[in-house]
Design brief:
- Helices cover 73% and strands 2% of the residues.
- By secondary structure, the chain is mainly α.
- The protein has a domain at 86-287.
- Strands 1-2 form a two-stranded antiparallel sheet.
- Helix 5 (115-127) runs parallel beside helix 10 (228-287) and helix 7 (144-160) packs antiparallel against helix 8 (167-190).
- The longest helix is centred in the C-terminal third of the chain and has 60 residues, at 228-287.
- The chain starts with 7 loop residues before the first helix and ends with a helix.
Length: 289
């Protein structure tokens, strides 16, 4: 009677466990920051830009939207741009908040030192079959590329001592470990970038909306005035309405520039992660046939 041997598939199934653990992270800033920035935007517009001392004829009654007149400076004239102005200020503050948040996150994910140099050091140690020194380099890197490489190296070291699987199956296990580690790192890098891309579009539209509302108010005021006074009110209204456009375009420009900077940095990290996975699989296939 022929002896029954365990199949490679069943052996491979025993090696599919992973050391990669999901990261616990809170994203409360995603819903707290926009609301807080909009509230702060209104406070700045109403109580800083719209302070009574900034106008020759302030509306002492106050309220949600005081009808101040006679701004003393260009800064206080921004108040007359209307209720869209605090929304634009809130958008600008939201951009600043998420730029700082993404800057800290991406800087941490980039780790220490040059990514290409780090990968070359790991390749050198793997070529000398010294996995422990490669792991030490990962601890020094302290970035997303180092985290992915470290997860792959642990599986790499485990597969070296495995005598049940074929080389191709060991390489697949290493590749799977790298893919799982990558799946945990990439969402952290791309998180909250949607706020920058959204504000880049919305801020311009809000600015144009504020301008249109201001123009409507300006032309409506022409019906109550005549002669030189009408021309004066029209030119003043147009000037005030264009503050909305300036704020909207400026905020949008900053959001677009920062978004492109961050995506470029993230692409560089992603490329390093891909290269690290390729390095591990190719090194194992070459050294442990």
């Amino acid at each position: 009677m022929a002896e029954t041997k365990p199949t490679a598939t069943s052996s491979a199934a025993k090696q599919t466990t992973t050391s990669v653990q999901p990261k616990k992270s809170s994203n409360a800033i995603a819903w707290i920051a926009p609301v807080a920035c909009l509230v702060l935007g209104y406070v700045i517009w109403r109580f800083v830009i719209g302070a009574d001392d900034n106008f020759t004829r302030p509306d002492k009654a106050g309220g949600f939207w005081p009808a101040h007149e006679g701004p003393k400076s260009g800064f206080s004239r921004m108040y007359l741009g209307g209720i869209i102005v605090p929304l634009l200020i809130g958008c600008f503050l939201t951009v600043v908040t998420f730029v700082i948040e993404r800057l800290l996150t991406v800087s941490k994910a980039s780790g220490k030192g040059n990514i290409a140099e780090f990968i070359r050091k790991v390749q050198y140690h793997l070529a000398n079959r010294d996995v422990d020194k490669a792991l030490i380099e990962c601890d020094k890197q302290r970035g997303s590329v180092g985290n992915v490489m470290k997860a792959g190296l642990r599986k790499y070291k485990e597969m070296i001592g495995n005598t049940e699987l074929a080389t191709d199956q060991k390489v697949l296990n290493i590749q799977k470990e790298v893919e799982e580690a990558t799946a945990l790192e990439l969402p952290m890098l791309e998180k909250n970038l949607v706020f920058l891309s959204t504000i880049a579009s919305v801020a311009t539209l809000l600015g144009l909306l504020g301008t249109v509302i201001g123009m409507i108010r300006s032309f409506s005021a022409l019906g109550d005035a005549g002669g030189g006074e009408a021309a004066q009110k029209l030119s003043q209204g147009i000037s005030e309405a264009l503050y909305n456009t300036a704020l909207g375009i400026g905020t949008s420009a900053i959001a677009i520039i920062c978004y492109n900077i961050f995506t470029t940095k993230i692409d560089a990290i992603t490329y390093g992660i891909d290269e690290s996975g390729f390095t591990l699989t190719q090194s194992f296939a070459a050294n442990y046939k």
